[in-house]
Amino acid sequence: ELVDRRAGFEPAAKALDAAAALLGDEPGDTQAEADQWLELMIHGRASYLLWRDDFDAAAAVLEQVRPVVEARGNASRRYAFYLYSAMERVNRARLRSDDQAVADMRRAVAAARESHDAKSTGYGTYFLGWALALRGDLAEARHQFTQSLEIADRVGESHLRANSLGSLVMMAVSSHDVGTVRDLTPRAVAAAQALGHNYVSWGIAPLAWLAWQEGRPDDVVRIAAEADAANEGTTGGGNQYRW
Fold first, then answer.
1. pLDDT of amino acid 99
2. Helix intervals (H) in the chain
């Protein structure tokens, strides 16, 4: 319900409330109860509030669970906790990253590796690159995106592949590296198109920049219009950057 953004998130909120009514307000006495409560609070409540851009409420939930995560959280729960903590901080600052956000992302990656979950490690690595890129650390961001792409290819994670390729293209654009943009963009376009409408603008927009660098003004206007049309009414896939 949450990922589908169904009915303005109302069904997701009702499902989370129903789970909370069963689990209660405290983490419980056993490790299994604590783990289930942390899953509801982090993967459920905090995630829901971040999707709603309710940063104050998300931060309050994360602070509520922090002592339980630190005392009783397994590696998977610590991965999600630090990931969402960093995301809350970056999004609250309107896509500006700082040392604390990067540090939390590094903690998330370390916890994902400890859990031996390749998918979580891949996404944690990708979002570490994202936080570094927003802070302006382009060289290390490029390294992290390259690693997340390798993991995506190894485990067959299509969303991670599209995001990693698109981000590597963004790094090349930021560095005015025409050759790398030319080489990578066809792969990024194919990965985006395989996922469907939400990712199309993310994939094709760099082609407008490439056309500009190559002196093809008519193509610049045409591709930019296509990317903007694909952006209409979509979420995710880099659309927040409004190419």
1. 97
2. 10-23, 31-38, 47-51, 55-72, 75-92, 99-115, 118-135, 138-155, 158-174, 178-195, 197-213, 217-231
What's the pLDDT at 237?
47
CA 178 – CA 181 distance, rounded (Å): 5
Give the number of other CB atoms < 10 A from CB of residue 107. 19
Which tokens is 57 given? 């409420």
Q: What is the pLDDT of residues 57-74, one digit of tens each?
A: 999 999 999 999 999 999
How far from 186 is each of 48, 136, 198, CA to CA, in Å? 34, 25, 17
Helix (H, G, I), strand (E, B) or coil at 111: helix
> Are the C-beta atoms of residues 84 and 46 closer than 8 Å to each other?
yes
Separation CA 207–CA 227 (nearest Å): 10
pLDDT at 98 over 50: yes
Q: Report the C-alpha gap between 176 and 209 in whole angstroms.
A: 10
Residue 92 carries which side chain, given as an amino acid letter?
R
Contact between 50 and 84 (Cβ < 8 Å): yes
Token pair, residue 206, equals 């760099």
Distance CA 103, CA 29 (A): 31
